[in-house]
Amino acid sequence: MSSSRFAAIVAGGGLAFALLAGCSGKPATQESSTTPHNVTLTKEQQQRIHVYTVEPSQYRDEITTTGVVDFDHNRSTDVLAPFSGPVTKLLVTLGQTVKKGQALALVDSPDFAAAVGAYRKALAAAKAADQLAATDRDLFAHHALSQREYAQAQSDAIGADSDRDAALQALVALHVDPQTIADIRAGRTAAHAQGVIRAPLAGTVVTKSITPGQLLSAGTTDCFTIADTAKMWVMAQVFGRELGMVKVGDPAEVESGDGGRTIAGKVTNVGAVIDPGTRSVAARVAVDNPDGVLKQQMYVQVRIRSQHPQTGLLIPVSALLRDDENLPFVYVVEPDGSYARRPVTLGARIGDRYLIPQGLRTGDKVVADGAIFLNFIQTQ
């Protein structure tokens, strides 16, 4: 045997080296056959062979794949400019934690001034119309006013009240604070003459897209992104036959990459559309992120396990070998004590074991450690 061949065997497994050391020293046969023959070992060699008895075992389907971290879209939002005008002052910084309704920026907006003016006019008109309607109601009760005039006064009051309420809703839509609205309603000068962009939810300012002096366009300019980073989504890629293994509610583990730390999560959605670029379906895994370890667009490893157990025949990963055509096989102990090569159908990998749908039966004894050495002897 050449030194390079011997080194390759040793590299294939330390057990092979140990077993070779225990060989009887008989010369290798010069005959070869295309049909594999059973392997027999001495008692000393058999002591170094470890056998696994195949029995039905419970398992849960498990896949390992990659994923991309994203914000929880139910807890994040882009803040668009509610009105037009130049930014006069930024009130928050990137990464700052904000409360719902907190002021983010001030804008010198004509939309804000117009909405305030419209509300003042609507208030005055509604007050006058309501007073007139009340007067006409009293006159009508004393038969001093016609039915037509009374009905018209009531209709005008209802219309004026509707205009007032609509003007108020316009201020609310512009995130005008309640104190400013109360000042306008009381006839006082508004304390804040500028428009205020406010946080629609509590969270962290993860994106700041505007600068002082920048001209905003109502409804189109993206100003901030606010997200609650304590909870994140991981979009895991699921391929091919694995699609049927992943269900909503399955537990998952996300490896963040910081020293192998894992974060528990749960599958909350399995996509219905295949990504044409990757030919995969996105499975959404919701995870807690209180320490902020996970960042948006971070690549992570995801392990998803089925929540429903199944039963099947599993063998250790070390028992499986592949032939020259890359087809899987194992060595099985025959009744006469020899070791026979047997082709198997390979199923999913479950931890350190493989599921074997076909090729083995309950009670079969497969070589778990030493298969590499048996294959070496058989192919000589």
Task: Offer a quick outline of the entry.
26% of the residues lie in helices and 32% in strands.
Could you please describe the fold and organization of this structure?
By secondary structure, the protein is an alpha+beta fold. The chain has three domains: 3-60 and 311-378, conserved putative lor/sdh protein from methanococcus maripaludis s2 fold (Beta Barrel), CATH 2.40.420.20; 62-74 and 228-308, Elongation Factor Tu (Ef-tu), domain 3, CATH 2.40.30.170; 83-227, no CATH class. Helices cover 26% and strands 32% of the residues. It is built from seven helices and 23 strands. The protein has helices spanning 3-12, 14-21, 43-46, 110-141, 147-173, 178-185, 371-378; strands at residues 50-53, 56-59, 62-71, 76-80, 85-90, 97-98, 103-107, 195-198, 203-208, 215-216, 222-227, 231-239, 251-255, 262-270, 280-288, 299-305, 310-316, 321-322, 328-333, 339-343, 349-350, 353-355, 365-369. The protein has a six-stranded antiparallel beta barrel. Helix 1 (3-12) packs across helix 2 (14-21) and helix 4 (110-141) runs antiparallel to helix 5. The protein is elongated. The N and C termini lie close together (11 Å). 25% of the residues are buried. The model is unreliable at 1-33 (pLDDT under 50).
Please state the overall shape, judged from the principal axes of the Cα atoms.
elongated
> Based on helices, strands and strand pairing, what is the structural class?
alpha+beta
Number of helices: 7
| Strand and helix order | HHHEEEEEEEHHHEEEEEEEEEEEEEEEEH
Our count of domains comes out at 3
Radius of gyration: 38 Å
Mean pLDDT: 85
Largest sheet: 6 strands, antiparallel, barrel
Helix content: 25-40%
Which percent band covers the strand fraction? 25-35%
Tally of DSSP β-strands: 23
Main-sheet strand order equals 3-12-15-14-13-16
**Span of the ends, CA to CA:** 11 Å
Detail the poorly predicted runs: 1-33
